[in-house]
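Re-run with default settings, no changes from the original entry. Doing this only to confirm the output is reproducible before filing.
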Amino acid sequence: MKDLYGSVTLPASKSESNRALMVAAYGGFHPTIDNLSDAHDTLLLQALLARIESHEGEELLELDCEDAGTAARFLLTFVAARPGTWRLTGTERMCQRPMQALVDALRTLGADIICERREGFLPMRVKGKPLKGGALTIDGSRSSQFVSSLMLAAPMWQEGLELHYQGEVVSQPYIHLTVEVMRHFGAKVAATAHGVKVSPSPYTPALFKVGGDWTSASYWYEMASISHRSELVLNGLDWDSPQGDKMARDYFALMGVASQRLEHGVRLVKKEGVRANTAQAPLVFDFTHCPDLFPAVFVACVANNCPSLCGGVQNLVWKESNRVDAILAELSKCYTLLYNRTSDKVELIQSCIYLDKINDNEVIFNTFSDHRIALALSALALEFGKVRFDQPQVVKKSYPNYWNDFQLITECNILI
């Protein structure tokens, strides 16, 4: 167990950055964004928007969204309403991630979309044309990005958008984040638990300041919970951020990590002798609206042998990897785990380090090409002294400077 002290400046939120970039693209003005994210997903979206803007004529333009789900979902709506011929594709994994609900919604509005291999999945060929908007119903049970994609476009449509939700919408804080960004640029948006109404009112230019990323903060909370004692300052975090993953404050408080509000960040404190709750009754977490927190929270529970019940994990199967399977597989390399699993929850009953599986105190983890798997598992270097990853570079998707920050604070040996 290590003591952790120091401060890091967290990366800017790619969720906020991506929404601001889309607003500027729809509004037809140059984005004035303070603290734009340098995450690969944001840089990719920025580059693709520039290619679309510079494209002329009816010649087919291919847009490779790589493994960026946000880019794929946001750009599908964007090009569906933009004259031209477009082809959206991505990595093999991206082409396995469902988009049927968004395709159906856009077709209802008159979009011309052909799925080349399998209905509802990339690659897709789109014949863009002006869309009027209107009223429709959408299934948001797979991804809130479908809802946000339509919302971002709606101020530019002649009839705006009156969107009704069918079933439970997951990750609702991301929809609230979309509302906040749109309103910042003058959009008229009314949102309820059952739907959203966007009036036809064009965006207006405005300076937008991107806050620090609360999802990235969760990995520092995770390390603090595993440490002997900690005092870490996370610069750039907004205590009142609209990002739903600020729930990390509450979830890790249950594991002994206190949060203190600072003027330009948050201080994490884990005191000596404070341990995660290892009582008979498990800690209960619901990841329905903050699924990206699951890897950090679950790894922390395992490392602390903290019984827990993690619900709302059903959509993790559709992320960059099947994150439940991936986390369980990699943790089983160094822990014996007693757990129950169903499609929507994982119950951790007991865990203990399985030293016989560790060669020379070095653990080699598979990332499954998923940045959040690598980020969450890195904290286990506090337990084992050093760890190795098959694809350490995947963290650039959301936190490009992570390994430098990690080694500076922990002094652990990440073999990359």
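The domain at 212-415 is CATH 3.65.10.10 (UDP-n-acetylglucosamine1-carboxyvinyl-transferase; Chain). Residues 40-54 form the longest helix (15 residues).
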